[in-house]
Amino acid sequence: MTVDDNTIKAHIEGLVAKSLPRSPIYNFLLSDVRIHAATQGNVKARLRLTKNHINSGGGIHGSVSATIVDWAGGMAIATWDLRDKTGVSVDIHVRYLSSAGEGDEIEIEGTAEKVGGSVAFTKVVISKLVDGEPSPIIASGTHTKYVKVRQS
């Protein structure tokens, strides 16, 4: 089944609108996230950092980056075949490479590297936007999810 990019983007925007209010942590941290682009296996979003995203040192909090990796991995899986349920986390790894501060805009890119019958593997890159372009990389991560759907 081939689905055009506009349909994929609309699906992800609908999923975000429906799912964020049901998750207190996602709603708190990602209520202003905007889907920038979506294709099969890939989603790009943008978010302006507020005081809710910042640690005591003035930079993006590590737990915020980890939450973004969790969320974006799921959204990348949803682009694969327009699914609404993106599974449960099995493993998350995050590497912290640089930082961004309050008022900075970040780009989040989630890629579904493989979506199988039971497990999906994703990678996520979080970059600071400089002059509208993503650079430097703030954090990158991998996220493995159990995606097998129960048979009724």
From TrEMBL:
Classification via CDD domains: PaaI_thioesterase (cd03443)
Family: Belongs to the thioesterase PaaI family.
Residues spanning the signal sequence: none
GO molecular function: fatty acyl-CoA hydrolase activity
PANTHER family: FAMILY PROTEIN, PUTATIVE (AFU_ORTHOLOGUE AFUA_4G04355)-RELATED, THIOESTERASE SUPERFAMILY MEMBER-RELATED
Entry keywords, A to Z: Hydrolase
InterPro entries: ACOT13, HotDog_dom_sf, PAAI_dom, Thioestr_dom
Domain Thioesterase: 58-130
Name by which UniProt lists this protein: Thioesterase domain-containing protein
Pfam families per UniProt: 4HBT
Keyword Hydrolase listed: yes
